[in-house]
UniProtKB/TrEMBL annotation:
InterPro entries: ACOX_C_alpha1 (IPR055060), Acyl-CoA_ox_N (IPR029320), Acyl-CoA_Oxase/DH_mid-dom_sf (IPR046373), Acyl-CoA_oxidase (IPR012258), Acyl-CoA_oxidase_C (IPR002655), AcylCo_DH-like_C (IPR036250), AcylCoA_DH/ox_N_sf (IPR037069), AcylCoA_DH/oxidase_NM_dom_sf (IPR009100). FAD binds at residues 108, 147. Residues 244-405 form the Acyl-CoA oxidase C-alpha1 domain. One of its GO terms (cellular component) is peroxisome. The keyword Nucleus does not apply. The active site is at residue 390. Pathway: Lipid metabolism; peroxisomal fatty acid beta-oxidation. Its cofactor is FAD. Residues 450-567, 569-612 form the Acyl-CoA oxidase C-terminal domain. Keywords: FAD, Fatty acid metabolism, Flavoprotein, Lipid metabolism, Oxidoreductase, Peroxisome. It is found in: Peroxisome. This is Acyl-coenzyme A oxidase. Belongs to the acyl-CoA oxidase family.
Length: 615
């Protein structure tokens, strides 16, 4: 439906100013998200299953550099669902869902992003008026980053330190109106604006926000987990981290988002590599498709495998997320730490790997990959941001490490949850079981090393399962992909395997051979494999990756859209197509700065005195 809309055509965004980009993004987002509303009216989506629709839209490239409405769907609504009580949900969700209010999520401040217990914004309860007073006591307390907050949102969830009866109870969430619903003017006591140009996501309208003793009703504190009663009494949550649920949700959906971007990047680079020919193996021969070089296969094929591995893992993570949330509703908090550790780890690993793979895809396209029109630079800008937002990757990995170490310390005393059950066998097998160069052997090795084993074993199990129902030919290719993913990472993480498993030099050598053989075996199916991602040209928006392979024609067509090429290329008064030679000669002559004034000052100063013999 979207691809039929002309609204997405026009001047490429790169040539627009920062302000025009924002205006364009609002126009396009409104077209795109009005479709979500239409689908809702037609009963094709509901608030409970909109992740796919919204995720699909945001990741579709229709909104190439992000959307100022993205946070409304991805964080504002999930935060209400996760943290508001039933009454509050009834009040706010219908308005949010039909977009009669637009929201953002304001947690990070100028001074603190990672350490959220250190946030400085305060929400102090005033029992006399039954209001909270929101205040930013310092410059570093200003909210900084929230998507869509600059000029777009009129509401947002704000995370602030809660004070009641003179006591601080740590950070809590509040729903806050920041702009007038009619005029869109910032409300008194609100200082708001946009934070400026960034490496990517320049259409997202990330904002800043400060409060000057700004008052909101008591009922605007989100009270599903903790409450403040009318007299100011504080009622604790069952678990202090339940308030972090929206972040866990977004970490989970980010894994899906990475699948989108990785599939796109590798589709573009693989199709281009089939079109591009460079160098002859023997003099006089036709030049080779660059996809035939094993080094090029090494750059690309692991991304095809990783896209499948991440998709399968994302689905499993989504199931776990829903299971644990159902248990939370029943009051069972047992698996919350495991879900948190899983979401942290998978968000960090998939964003870091996707960013590295997209950059490899860009390099694999040589100079043409450097063109904005290839879509690869923009895609890199989008995925590398995900390494930082929603929890900086190192910090998230440390959270997972903390959980693993804790679990390891309790190996003998506690029953292990499914995702960490491998720790028991790994502990027992360390150095005791020999190395084996099979997929299972590599997975066992990684169980000892404990990195990426979640992704690997899930990928392997799912492909084993699929193999029962697919054709023998497809089964073979799927196994090649699992093999490639496992051998690639075994070779990348050799130092860990050498340190913690009995892998020998000979086995490393044969692993390398096996990896190269798998690349060669996959080569005939490479283009078919990326075609199978089924991404339309309108979604790829790339000069290099279109299905028809018209790479060079598209590069020239895009070049012609540069405003610098708006003037005729010939740039000749004599040779123009319309033959207006004399008119052009005169027009050009009139452009001379000497013709801008009838008499040049040198006449009076030098020439006239000289002519009159006075000089
Ligand atoms: C397909 C759709 C497209 C999606 C695209 C999305 C596009 C959107 C673009 C951008 C949006 C970006 C939004 C944002 O960035 S919002 C801001 C996000 N900010 C963060 O993520 C901050 C990161 N910091 C933290 O999460 C935390 O501060 C922390 C986890 C690093 C530490 O928290 P803290 O309160 O200091 O905890 P402690 O160190 O005291 O730990 C105590 C204990 O609790 C455990 N724990 C921490 N967090 C959780 C949790 N969420 N759930 C369960 N348990 C948790 C922690 O591990 C400790 O456990 P213990 O060892 O057993 O004691
Ligand atoms: C594009 C984008 C969109 C965003 N959107 C939003 C939004 O909508 N709403 C919102 O509230 N926020 C948003 N953010 C903010 C984002 O959540 C934070 O930037 C992120 O959580 C990282 O925090 P920080 O910037 O404070 O980094 P810092 O924590 O200052 O990190 C800097 C360095 O310090 C290291 N470090 C920090 N703490 C530790 C530690 N304990 N141990 C070891 N190393 C450590 C990190 O690993 C990193 O290398 C967005 C950010 C970006 C880039």
């Amino acid at each position: 439906m979207l691809s039929k809309r002309e609204v997405f055509d026009g001047v490429p965004e790169e040539y627009l100013s920062h302000k025009e980009r924002y205006e364009n993004a609002i126009r396009n987002s409104v077209v795109a998200f009005s479709l979500v509303r239409k689908m809702q009216e037609e009963g094709k989506t509901s608030i409970n299953n909109y992740r796919d629709v919204v995720g699909g839209l945001l990741g579709s490239s229709v909104l190439r550099d992000g959307s100022p409405l993205g946070l409304h769907y991805i964080m504002f609504m999930p935060a209400i669902l996760n943290q508001a009580n039933e009454e509050q949900q009834e009040k706010w969700l219908p308005r949010a869902w039909n977009c009669s209010i637009i929201g953002s999520y304001a947690q990070t401040e100028l001074g603190h992003g990672t350490f959220i217990r250190g946030l400085e914004t305060t929400a102090t309860y005033d029992a006399a008026t039954k209001q909270f007073v929101l205040h930013s006591p310092t410059l570093t307390a200003y909210k900084w980053w929230p998507g869509g907050l600059g000029q777009t949102a009129n509401y947002c969830i704000v995370v602030a330190q809660l004070y009641t009866k003179g006591q601080c109870h740590g950070i809590h969430s509040f729903i806050i109106q920041v702009r007038d619903e009619e005029t869109h003017m910032p409300l008194p006591g609100i200082k708001i604006g946009e934070i400026g140009a960034k490496l990517g996501l320049n259409a997202v309208n990330n904002g800043f926000l400060g409060f000057d003793n700004y008052r909101i009703p008591r009922t605007n504190m989100l009270m599903k987990h903790a409450q403040v009663l009318e007299d100011g009494t504080y009622v604790k949550s069952r678990h202090s981290k339940l308030n972090y649920g929206a972040m866990v949700f977004v970490r989970v959906v980010i894994v899906f988002d990475m699948v989108n971007y990785l599939s796109k990047a590798v589709t573009i680079a693989t199709r281009f590599s089939a079109v591009r020919r460079q160098c002859q193996l023997k003099a006089g021969e036709t030049e080779c498709q660059i996809l035939d070089y094993v080094t090029q296969q090494h750059k690309l094929f692991v991304s095809i495998a990783a896209a499948h591995a991440f998709r399968i893992t994302a689905n499993k993570l989504w199931l776990t997320f829903n299971e644990v949330n159902e248990q939370l509703v029943e009051g069972n908090l047992q698996r919350l730490p495991e879900l948190h550790a899983l979401a942290c780890c998978l968000k960090a690993v998939t964003t870091a790997d996707t960013a590295a793979c997209v950059e490899r895809c860009r390099l694999a396209c040589g100079g043409h990959g450097y063109m904005m029109s290839s879509s690869l630079p923009l895609t890199y800008g989008l995925v590398t941001a995900a390494c930082t937002y929603e929890g900086e990757n190192t910090v998230l990995l440390l959270q997972t490490a903390r959980f693993l170490v804790k679990t390891y310390q309790q190996l003998d005393s506690k029953a292990l949850t499914p995702t960490v059950a491998y720790l028991k066998t790994a502990a027992a097998e360390r150095f005791c079981v020999g190395w084996s160069n099979t997929t299972e052997g590599i997975i066992r090795g990684f169980q000892v090393v404990a990195m990426r084993v979640i992704i690997m074993s899930t990928f392997n199990e799912e492909v084993q399962e699929m193999s029962r129902t697919v054709s023998p030919q497809l089964k073979e290719v799927l196994h090649q992909l699992v093999d490639l993913y496992c051998t690639y990472w075994a070779l990348e993480k050799l130092s860990d395997l050498l340190l913690y498993t009995p892998i020998s030099q000979k086995e490393v050598e044969s692993l390398r051979l096996r990896y190269e053989e798998t690349l060669t075996n996959l080569r005939p199916n490479a283009v078919g494999l990326v075609d199978a991602f089924d991404l339309r040209d309108e979604m790829l928006q790339s000069t290099l990756g279109s299905y028809d392979g018209r790479v060079y024609e598209r590069l020239m067509e895009e070049a012609m859209k540069s405003p610098l090429n708006a003037e005729p290329m010939l740039q000749s008064t004599l040779g123009s197509y319309d033959g207006r030679v004399y008119e052009r000669l005169m027009e050009e002559a009139m452009k001379s700065p000497l013709n801008a004034e009838p008499v040049n000052y040198t006449f009076h100063k030098y020439l006239k005195p000289f002519m009159q013999g006075k000089l």
